Amino acid sequence: MAPRVLVVDDEPALVDILVEILTDAGYDASGAGDGLAALAMVERERPALVLSDVQMPRLDGIGLAARLRQRSIPVVLMSAVRWPHQMTDVAFLAKPFDLDELLVTVDAALAALAPQEPQPKSVGRHAAPAASDGPQGSGPAELSRAARRPPSDAPAAYYRAASR
Fold this sequence. Notes:
By secondary structure, the chain is α/β, with parallel strands linked by helices. The chain is 39% helix and 17% strand. The strands form two sheets. It has a five-stranded parallel sheet, sandwiched between helices. 33% of the residues are buried.
């Protein structure tokens, strides 16, 4: 079963685009227009991850993340404004972002939730490669740092054009 991702933003066109991109990437994606609508959706169908804008009417992304933290639902915040540093347990995507970076961030956030397999024991001088040895950025702190790097021009240009 595909992981369920809830996209929350007060720009309906952006929600539609992100839901389509995530669906095409194999996720079960749906959208909400603000934090209160997202909470209602969470009550009906629990997502594995919430991707939320920071600045929204009624309930902003920071308030939504705080409420979802109580339910142990991870959040990736996205915004064109400064990173809300007081929230250290969420990943962040600076808008406009690279679409590949979006998918890497969502993949990494979901991978961080997966149960960790025990590390193989070292045999002699050579250890077997660890199952979790993957791309950097899978932990929350690494994910946050990776998510703040500047996007490449081509996908960001597509994102900017598509979000108008």
